[in-house]
Amino acid sequence: MIKKKNIALIAHDERKQDLLEWVKFNRGTLSKHNLFGTGNTGSLIKKETGLKVTTFLSGPLGGDQQIGAKITEGEIDFLIFFWDPLESHPHDPDVKALLRIAVVWNIPIACNRATADFLVSSPLIDEDYKRQVIDYSKRYVH
Length: 142
Description:
Elements: E1 6-11, H1 16-25, H2 27-30, E2 34-37, H3 39-49, E3 53-55, H4 63-72, E4 78-82, H5 92-104, E5 109-110, H6 113-121, H7 136-139
């Protein structure tokens, strides 16, 4: 990861305001990085903060999978995903797949404000960082 990180921002409907408040609070830090988001979340952040956000489709229409693909291509460095733990969603399998991909590719993931605060306040946010990625093909022979 280079100093200027590619940060994905996602929130379920019930958590969008929480994420928006967090983005506003951390606007200065986030403005130094490249931001990406699923359709509705990214559009809301752009509208409410003026930050530049590259948007994908909405989550239920494939946006979570698009971000997952960008993670596998090395184009997303970390994920801020305020998901709703109290509601099931029709695209829950996509959400689980996205989180699994983030773990496989060893990118930092924040699913709540406390963890997101720790990520953006880490000195590593503005530094180059060499991620260690496990070669799962050597561990699982089928």
